[in-house]
Structure to design on (276 residues):
């Protein structure tokens, strides 16, 4: 029997505090709100008790941010797309930010097991004055455990309507894509970090974000398979390929921390759940 789960998470700004309220249907919810940085930033951990998705499962996540609110969302572990007997497994996330809202969307990686049929969709709508830092990390199989991604498909879709669209389909049988030097070149982790602004950024702000990202890329072990660019005046993107998740995630965390300091004058705070 497939699992269908929905979560509505709304951030409000009340009495100088960011407050999260949520409603859920099925096995998808958040843990208590935490304030390790003070009242201005509300940290939440999104939990899916079944631990993964099989064919026919759907997860729908809707996040809204009211003016002046600042939320940070992460997960306690990876999202797992397991083998499917034919049906699709879908995770769909929609984020809508009002003017002046901030959000940090920082889930841990999505792992595609051999034989999966997965779709992972993210849609971001940012009103003028709203800003978001987010990432998307995908692992194809578990190379370290000798569990390669040798069957199955993944459709990845990231969209800021009318501004930016990244959509790609990976088929485990497409050996040229997976192994070619102009494809994944044998890497099994793909990751993107993005800054999304509802108002086009001034050139100085864009250049500052790009300079920070490129400096940290140059200092990393992934300097030959990572790069940062600005496809639109309101979008900054860092992309990286890695053989496994850990070095890619290490680079993304360093750049995320540097970006929040550069753009929001916030310290490099790390969610407590990552240390557990």
């Amino acid at each position: 029997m497939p699992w269908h789960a929905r979560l509505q998470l709304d951030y409000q700004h009340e009495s100088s505090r960011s407050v999260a309220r949520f409603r859920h249907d099925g096995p998808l919810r958040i843990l208590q709100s935490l304030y390790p940085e003070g009242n201005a930033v509300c940290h939440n951990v999104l939990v899916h008790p079944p631990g993964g998705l099989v064919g026919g499962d759907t997860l729908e996540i809707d996040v809204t941010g009211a003016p002046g609110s600042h939320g940070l969302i992460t997960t306690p572990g990876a999202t797992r797309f397991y083998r499917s007997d034919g049906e699709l497994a879908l995770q769909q996330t929609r984020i809508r930010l009002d003017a002046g809202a901030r959000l940090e969307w920082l889930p841990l990686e999505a792992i595609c097991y051999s034989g999966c049929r997965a779709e992972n969709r993210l849609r971001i709508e940012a009103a003028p004055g709203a800003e978001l830092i987010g990432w998307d990390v995908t692992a194809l199989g578990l190379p370290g455990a000798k569990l390669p991604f040798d069957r199955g498909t993944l459709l990845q879709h990231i969209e800021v309507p009318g501004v930016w669209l990244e959509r790609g389909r990976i088929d485990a049988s497409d050996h040229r894509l997976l192994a070619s030097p102009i494809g994944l070149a044998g890497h099994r982790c793909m990751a993107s970090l993005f800054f999304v602004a509802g108002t086009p950024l001034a050139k100085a702000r864009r250049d500052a974000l790009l300079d920070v990202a490129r400096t940290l890329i140059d200092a990393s072990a992934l300097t030959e398979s990572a790069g940062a660019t600005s496809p639109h005046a309101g979008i900054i993107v860092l992309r990286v390929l890695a053989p496994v998740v850990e070095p890619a995630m290490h680079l993304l965390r360093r750049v995320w921390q540097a970006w929040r300091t550069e753009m929001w004058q916030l310290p490099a705070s790390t969610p407590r759940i990552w240390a557990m």
In short: Helices lie at 175-179, 203-218, 245-264. The mean pLDDT is 95. The chain has three helices and 17 strands.
